[in-house]
Write a sequence for this structure.
């Protein structure tokens, strides 16, 4: 009897599977034209993506990399105005941003342009370029946030600068830039009257970077902020 029940249940499951398959097959038959159209569109989209990438984006990226070379050289030599606007023969960072938009090189040029504007005193433009930089390199991203904070400080946006300095310190945790940015963050927080956050920034230097240059003298900053807080 038990064997008969098992057999019946097995037959029912098999019949259910067969019914499901039949329905699926019928659906394909009834909608084959629509399915073919959808698959064709997907195939064309995939081929178009790889075609654009190979025959448009990659060559454009190479052109952008070649174009930025001279601007980077001017930047390295602290000739920020020429690096920014070009020298008449070679493109500057602004030209590269405008002519090669969407490339990784144009995105990097936004970082360079922001720092160049910071050094030439155009702080609003520096903020604009540095906020638009979207890099994946954590070190460059950290430096960009630090430069953004410098520009915000120059514009008197102290609270924003403090937050940017703190983000710069956390973006790429290391014993060189992190304590430097944390100290700047703490000082900016003090200027903004936010002594609790200033103390927190100083204490992070004390805990995580005690052997840094900033760490050796951090106690006086903590004491000062605590006194102001009282």
């Amino acid at each position: 009897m038990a064997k008969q029940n098992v057999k019946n249940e097995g037959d029912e499951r098999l019949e259910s599977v067969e019914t499901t398959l039949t329905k699926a097959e019928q659906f394909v038959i009834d909608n084959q034209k629509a399915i073919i159209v959808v698959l064709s569109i997907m195939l064309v989209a995939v081929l178009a993506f790889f075609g654009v990438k190979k025959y448009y984006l990659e060559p454009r990226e190479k052109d952008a990399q070649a174009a930025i070379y001279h601007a980077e050289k001017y930047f390295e030599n602290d000739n920020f105005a020429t690096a920014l606007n070009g020298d008449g023969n070679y493109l500057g960072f602004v030209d590269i941003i405008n002519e090669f938009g969407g490339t990784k090189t144009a995105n990097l040029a936004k970082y360079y342009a922001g720092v160049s504007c910071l050094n030439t005193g155009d702080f609003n433009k520096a903020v604009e370029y540095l906020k638009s930089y979207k890099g994946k390199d954590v070190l460059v991203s950290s430096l960009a946030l630090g430069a953004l904070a410098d520009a915000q400080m120059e514009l008197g946006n102290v609270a924003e600068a403090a937050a940017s300095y703190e983000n710069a310190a956390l973006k790429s945790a290391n014993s060189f830039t992190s304590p430097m940015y944390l100290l700047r963050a703490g000082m900016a927080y003090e200027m903004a009257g936010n002594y609790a956050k200033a103390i927190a920034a100083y204490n992070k230097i004390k805990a995580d970077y005690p052997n840094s240059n900033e760490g050796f003298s951090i106690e006086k900053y903590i004491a000062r902020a605590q006194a102001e807080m009282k």
In short: The domain at 136-230 is CATH 1.25.40.10 (Serine Threonine Protein Phosphatase 5, Tetratricopeptide repeat). The longest helix spans residues 32-76.
